Amino acid sequence: MNSQGEFIASLRELKQRSGLTYRQLEKRAAERGKVLARSTLADVLAGKRLPAPDVLDAFVHACGEGDQVDSWQQARASIAEPAATPAVQRRRSVWWSAASALVVVAAAGTWFAVSGGRDAPAGTSVPTSPVRIRPVAAPDLCLTDGHVRDGRYGPLVAVQRPCSAVAPQTTTLEPLGSGAYRIAWHHPQFGKGCLKVLEDGLLEPWDDCTKATPFTLEHSEAEYTLRVEGRGCVGIAGTGESAEALVGACDQRFMIDTAQRRP
Question: What residue ranges are annotated as transmembrane (predicted)?
Answer without folding.
Answer: 94-114
